[in-house]
Amino acid sequence: MEGIAIIGLAGRFPGAKNIAEFWQNLCDGVEAISQFSDEELIAAGVDPSLLKERNYIKAGAVLEDIDLFDAGFFGVNPKEAEMTDPQHRLFLECAWEALENAGYDAQRCESRIGVYAGASLNNYLTFSLNSDRIGSAHSFQKLIGNDKDFLSTRVSYKLNLTGPSLTIQTACSTSLVATALACQSLLNYQCDMALAGGASIRVPQKTGYLHQEGGILSPDGHCRAFDAKARGTIIGNGVGVVLLKRLSEAIADGDRIYAVIKGSAINNDGSLKVGYTAPSVNGQAEAIAEAIALADVDPETITYIETHGTGTALGDPIEISALTNAFRAETEKKGFCAVGSVKTNIGHLDAAAGVTGLIKTALALQHKLIPPSLNFEQPNPEIDFANSPFYVNNQLTEWNATSTPRRAGVSSLGIGGTNAHVILEEAPSLREQRSALAGEQGRNYQLLVLSAKTDSALETATNNLVQHLRQHPELNLADVAYTLQVGRGVFNYRRAVVCQSTQEAITALETIDPQQVLTHFEEPIQRSITFMFPGQGAQYVEMGKELYQTEPTFRELVDRCSLLLEPHLGLDLRSLIYPQESEKQPAAEQLKQTQFAQPALFVIEYALAQLWMSWGISPQAMIGHSIGEYVAACLAGVMSLEDALTLVAVRGRLMQQMATGAMLSVSASAAEVKTFLNEDLALAANNAPSLCVVSGSYDAVNKIAEKLTAKGIECRRLHTSHAFHSHMMEPMLEPFMAELKKVNFNPPEIRFISNLTGTWITADRAISPDYWAQHLRQTVQFSSGLSVLLEESDRILLEVGPGRTLCTLVKQHAQKAGGQVVLPSLRHPQEEKSDINFLLNILGRLWLAEVEINWSVFYDREQRYRVSLPTYPFERQRYWIEPEIPTQVSAKVESKQGKKPNISNWFYVPSWKRVPLVKTKEISSDCSLVFIDEYGLGSELVQQLQQLGQNVITVKGGKEFNQLDSNTYAINPSQADDYLNLLRQLREQGKTPKTITHLWSLHQSQTLSWETTQNLGFYSLVYLAQAIGQQQISDPIQILVIANHLHDITGNEELFPEKTTILGACKVIPQEYPNISCRLVDILLPTSTSENILEQLLAELTAELEESIIAYRNNYRWVQTFEPVTLEPTTEDNIRLRQQGVYLITGGMGGIGLVLAEYLAKTVQAKLILLGRSLPSDREKIKQLEALGTEALVLAADVTNEEQMHSAIAQSLERFGTIHGVIHTAGVAGAGMVQLKTPEIAERVFAPKVQGTITLNNVLKNINLDFLVLCSSLSSIQGGFGQVDYCAANTFLDTFAHWNTTTNNSFTVAINWDAWQQVGMAVNTNVPDEIKNWREESLKNAILPSEGVEAFSRILANSLPQVIVSTQDLLAGIEQLNQSVLSLSFAKKSVNSCQVSASRHSRTLQENTYVAPRNEIEQTVANIWEELIGIEKVGIYDNFFELGGHSLLAVQTISRLREAFQVELPLRTLLFDAPTVSELANVIALKQPQSEELDEIAKLLAEVENLSIEELQKQLAQESPVS
């Protein structure tokens, strides 16, 4: 099999903070075992009585700093960091380090990287099912922070790794098994690289252990592997990670290879051994033999074995016996293979033991040294080393080469019998040969780049690199540069330096000379790049000479252009640009001639632009000065390179032939200069606000120069031979025009500025020959062009050509140039600096400005190697929770039911049963709120309630909030604030309602718009619940909704589907607000007397039953229920599908849509129309469908857009002639609590389900469909946390199916799907942390795609307008959901309900952004944030979410702020309106009583205090309302 290269290592071990220290300790024979004092042990929580026991061993292998972690680096908020197992935290840091050690940046690496790892038992934070408030955000965070399951996937998430991510557990062999599985994954091409390893940290570390004779723990705190005194191991702590890659690719990619895994094997002992925990000779021998066979090596060539080597009297002999059996199958040779055990150095690292042995062996192969195995004096008498292939290596030994590469084996054996063995071989020496060659090629200067997330980390990274370069002078500096560029993450604090040698790099980075070492901090910003191409006058001999010598891309383009120009120029342009030393002077003179200057400039600028672009630095805009605009046009695709070169050559030649003239640079504005001009002079260029060029005859220019000088205006003659851009160029226009007409011009593909207009070029001008003719005659409006460019801030303006003339012109636009980055590309001719040095400095400056550079192309002509360099200097802080005290919490939610095995039992239909109302209570005198209808029923109800002694407040619909009398209000149904004002005023009067009766959904006819219907129904209830939440009303409130036209019970009711969304609000509000109950009564409006109905409604107001959906028809009371129906598999007789029928699926490229499409293709070879909002980028799925024999038409159309849908239907009919059936699966998942719901959010969810269904029905009304299937959801039946809009939208679908089937006689069925596995919204939707556990559990019972299509076929074979699909007992499921949601008590969560440590951590944001609170309100807000988020120094401009806040913390924060300030604060204030301390303090200040109000209150209180009892009673009597 192909070898697997180990290309990266990272680890933390007892006595070693990194791999280098670990190797040094191994070579030095360090035993990193600590002996503990009684004081240390008692401080760690050990029972003092235990210390007196003789067999209590006070020793252990301690891993330093397990409480430290760089939370800010990984975007983890301090509280989350504290709650995360140190095994997970250190493993995450080591995973990052292993990637960097190999020279890979996970964020930019395009390879799929897998993670295979395991951890030991977590005893940092224990998880109690009883005391951890299952379902709360706190418990969920604690679970994912501490359960082994999340070790690997956390790394994948945090580092954005997309390969397989598996947590593996096989006890002590975990990490070597993980490595073997990672190798398999690489060989199977499931990933391109893989991280493998393990973590084992026992908390607290400073505890001893009880030694028991015959056990696995040592009696004296030492591990003596294979020694006669061996009686056990000790407990160690550590973390190890390796990065693996297929060997051929590692060699091709220039990776540093520590060692090669030639073969690996895993097996289990089975039961043929003494006991479950005992080792087995046969089991181990088979694993070793298999690994050797797979590696295809001779055992005699293996000269070292890193054993499991626990140092137990039973285990050691068995392990050597197993090794001997495996080797003896091939060789009788004795004593040639050394054995050792790292456990003698650092103890047994349990889940991390195997990878630790692997790392030790890989380092041994790399250094060609075998470290000593400690504490070995006399062999265990049960081991016959003399007659075995093995000997114990107890001293540091040179690992001598033989005729084959050095090879080793590594064993790891797990309690429970899972054995792993890996065969290693030293890395191929090919690398050194190629590296030696590589050192001779490439650039003679290198660009080193460093970045970090903080300024202090950048300084540490700089110092670490300096020390490393000093310690490793043999490193190739180009490889160092390459590794830093491609193998490190890129962060906001950046540093770059260009240097020629390692010593120069060391000196520069030590002194930080700002002239050479560039340091910059930049907030993430998307800068657009503008190329600026200079004009004539910038050229000089040897411009870009070094680039020509060392940059193949540049050289190839200069060569190509020169060859193309030779017929036009009559010479090789390179002889002028890069002449022989003796020819320099004449070449310089020739280069001043226009006929050569212009082509030379074009060639250098074009080649330079292409060089920049090859490195990933591409322009989004361009501007050229005169001839420079030709380069811009050529790059923009306006003209081909050949045409551009021809035009430039002809232009230069014709100009050369014109009469000579002069040009004058003038330090004044264009307007001022124009006053001096006459017919002999022209304004040639307007270069800057106060810099112009005048052009004309020698005489005219001399005269204007005198006039300007007399006026004190500075001017100077330019070194030109001709008067460009003046009337003296006119004779060449006609011949040049003739040349232009030969050219095929194209519209520009990259925007550039026109010299002629001083603004963006239009396509018409760019392709007009006349434009290019006028371009050489008219004024160069360069200043105007720069002004247009500078209107956009944050540009990078890169001068692409010789010198820095244009950079200087940009900087003269002082007001606008401030925020821009302005850079040249080539040195000025007077600058004595290497071209490469200069260009790399500019490249460094671009990198500092956050430009992404394509480093692979930068090095594509040279072989570079990744080298081992210092990894990121984590700035670790202490995050630690001392052992917690369990608290009592609510009962947990348990799944009481499971998935029914028989699909026939999954189906239900809505039904109604007559249930008379028998149990009622008296009408109370509490306050009641009634939203009255226009029909008058509400008003009659109010009168009845008042007669029965109830205090009733009436609410009518109006245009704005208004109190009409003491007990009547008008509110605008569509204004959320009106509901809030209403409840606030009622609370202030002590009239908080206990019951609310809502009759706004009673209408006589359906003439209302969708918007009005929702405002009176769905949104009205949502706003009402939000107001209750914002007012923090925690007393029980009953809402009774009275509506009509919602349900079909008797078979002749008129249905209004748009109204039924109110049912969604009724179902979900009680699930999110534990104190609100909500019931709905559907009635028929009486035609005459309302006596009966009034009695019925009064009875409902006093009902003591749980039923939530009720209907009255005549004198009967009906309650909604759901009846099971058995739907049998389809037969040929009842199948509704046609062979090769035409079926339209909306959401056709979604998960469920594709599953149903595949079913139709397979069963009836259907012709499919798959409709989606956009066309799929990947047509793989379509090809798979077509392979099944179907025709598929894929169309992009928004199902809510009638015009687009008409077009889609027309295309479908044109292609297939008809449509037989439609499946409407399009939908948007709902998400978000009622408290935060806005119409904008809800309408996005309503759109595909509601407007989409209505639109579909309209555009298909003339087509006689066999069926219309509406994919509804179980949520419309049972609600769901955060699903109010989704529940409402699906309720509409359910009613629409009934309505369409009966009203239009068109068979329509709504399928209320339970959640699907693998596809669909349940899988892809984010839910609040509070219910993730519950959701994960419930998904186990979800529908598999194969089950879904079976259910679909059965439903389609029947004629029911609505079918509910539930894999579990439906009624029990509804009850369970309500119980689980209630147990969350989401709205009432207090910060004290979960364990919060009092510790504070340093700021996660930059220190220089901290601004201290300025007043008491800001200080209080900051204090609350500090406590809840767990950081110190919250500044007034810090953003809640940037500090690590999230929606759950926001709920707690608002609760605390309400308590602290006694003001009403909606949750959205913090989430959307005021996410900083300053903004929040302003909101609070506005809501608090003002000082004048406080003075008035104080005055009134003083007056009250001075009144006598009699006066007080008299005053109260006057104030009281008349009853």
TrEMBL record:
Q: Does the keyword Heme apply?
A: no
**Catalytic activity, EC:** 2.3.1.292
Instruction: Cite a GO CC annotation.
Output: plasma membrane
Please state the span of the N-terminal signal peptide per the UniProt entry: none
Q: Which domain of life is it from?
A: Bacteria
Q: What sort of enzyme, by top EC class, is this?
A: transferase
Which Gene Ontology MF annotations are present? fatty acid synthase activity; oxidoreductase activity; phosphopantetheine binding
| PANTHER family according to UniProt | FATTY ACID SYNTHASE, INACTIVE PHENOLPHTHIOCEROL SYNTHESIS POLYKETIDE SYNTHASE TYPE I PKS1-RELATED
Name the record gives this protein? Phenolphthiocerol/phthiocerol polyketide synthase subunit E
**Record lineage:** Bacteria, Bacillati, Cyanobacteriota, Cyanophyceae, Chroococcidiopsidales
